[in-house]
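Hi R.,

As promised on Friday, here is the backbone we talked about, encoded as structure tokens. Could you run it through your design pipeline when you get a chance and send me back a sequence?
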């Protein structure tokens, strides 16, 4: 995550803190990385309906990241399909140690409002 990209996230969120000014990545970036990971494997437009992010460590800007994930559940509720994804974000030099863990639920965008 580049310092410039991190700064854009911080500015958009209206966040200002000395830790981030010193070069720490903004943890909710992991949520965006999770969405991007899923988007690489799912061409259909989806809506994110739930997000749970756990931060287990600090990552500095400019640190190469590794994002891995797996589908942990597929189900239907109220006539809509859902997919639960569990993803981890680690540093390239320590891929076994997740710094951020992300659990997300997606549903196809086409099913929303189609009743």
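Update: got your reply. Pasting your designed sequence below so it's all in one thread:
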């Amino acid at each position: 995550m580049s310092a410039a990209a991190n700064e854009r996230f911080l500015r958009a969120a209206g966040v200002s803190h000395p830790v981030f000014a010193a070069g720490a990545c903004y943890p909710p970036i992991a949520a965006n990385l999770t969405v991007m990971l899923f988007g690489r494997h799912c061409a259909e437009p989806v809506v994110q309906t739930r997000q749970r992010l756990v931060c287990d460590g600090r990552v500095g800007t400019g640190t190469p990241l590794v994002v891995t994930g797996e589908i942990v559940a597929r189900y239907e509720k109220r006539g809509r399909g859902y997919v639960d994804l569990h993803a981890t974000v680690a540093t390239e030099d320590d891929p076994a140690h997740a710094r951020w863990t992300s659990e997300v639920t997606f549903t196809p965008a086409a099913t929303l409002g189609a009743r």
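One thing I noticed while checking it: The longest strand covers residues 94-108.

Thanks again,
M.
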